[in-house]
Amino acid sequence: GKKGCKLESSISDTVKKSLPILLNGEYSRYDSKGRLCYVHVFVDGELVSFKQYYSTGELHQHFDYEKKYNNEQLTYFYYEYNQDGTLKYEGVMRKGDKGWRIYNSQD
């Protein structure tokens, strides 16, 4: 994990002792100053979203694993934002002419 960050979970200590379980809900990581670093969202054990934040609190990156490229499995959408909140880049992780990588969503 990211140095200086701690993971906070909504799972109770009682449930933690009876692992393994499928994760459900949001799992947030904060830095040593209490600032949000990133958020993972799981549904029935499947990662459906990941968001990373600038140290100032604005959204930096968003990986949307539920949104698919042409309904193809193993593809997902990626968004990168400037610190002022405007969209910097939108792409899709897929297999293309250059192999598996993030391509511009308009390609």
Outline the structure in words:
The termini are far apart. The protein is built from one helix and eight strands, in the order βαβββββββ. It has an eight-stranded antiparallel sheet with strand order 1-2-3-4-5-6-7-8, with no helix packed on it. The mean pLDDT is 87. By secondary structure, it is mainly β.
Beta content comes to: over 45%
Secondary structural class: mainly beta
Number of helices: 1
Biggest pleated-sheet summary: 8 strands, antiparallel
Q: Can you tell me the overall shape?
A: flat
SSE run: EHEEEEEEE
What Rg is obtained from the alpha carbons, in whole angstroms? 16 Å
- Separation, N- and C-terminal Cα atoms: 33 Å
Question: Average pLDDT, to the nearest integer?
Answer: 87
- The residue ranges in which pLDDT falls below 50 over 5 or more consecutive positions are none
Main sheet: strand order? 1-2-3-4-5-6-7-8
Percent of residues in helices: under 10%
Report the strand count: 8
Feature tags:
107 residues, mainly beta, 4% helix
